[in-house]
Amino acid sequence: MSPALLTETDLTQALTGLPGWTGSVAGISRTITAPSFIDGIDLVRRVAAAAESADHHPDIDIRWRKVTFTLSTHVSGGVTALDIALAEQIDRLAE
């Protein structure tokens, strides 16, 4: 059974606790500017390890020092609690 999609209201409430994240019930994104290219790659490595442990994987776009993470639960067709949990983890790793 796939995880339940968040409603617009649920997502709006969740995003209030996730500064820098934007999007819709279809997907949420955040771009983080790392101090250097290597720091950005290191962040991607740490997020990849966390995502692998959770068996929930973000789409990642790397442009020099800017790393964009986009989250949605593909099997559910949009944003679920799994995406909010991974966004919180990405924020902790980016600190």
From TrEMBL:
Signal peptide from the UniProt entry: none
Protein name from the UniProt record: Putative pterin-4-alpha-carbinolamine dehydratase
Broad class of enzyme this protein falls into: lyase
Pfam families reported for this sequence: Pterin_4a
CDD domains reported in the protein's UniProt record: PCD_DCoH
Keywords: Lyase
Lineage per the UniProt record: Bacteria, Bacillati, Actinomycetota, Actinomycetes, Mycobacteriales
Family named by the database record: Belongs to the pterin-4-alpha-carbinolamine dehydratase family.
Catalytic activity of the protein: (4aS,6R)-4a-hydroxy-L-erythro-5,6,7,8-tetrahydrobiopterin = (6R)-L-erythro-6,7-dihydrobiopterin + H2O
GO molecular function: 4-alpha-hydroxytetrahydrobiopterin dehydratase activity
Bilayer-crossing regions: none
GO biological process: tetrahydrobiopterin biosynthetic process
Stored PANTHER family: PTERIN-4-ALPHA-CARBINOLAMINE DEHYDRATASE
Keyword Lyase: yes
Enzyme Commission code(s) on record: 4.2.1.96
Keyword Lyase attached: yes
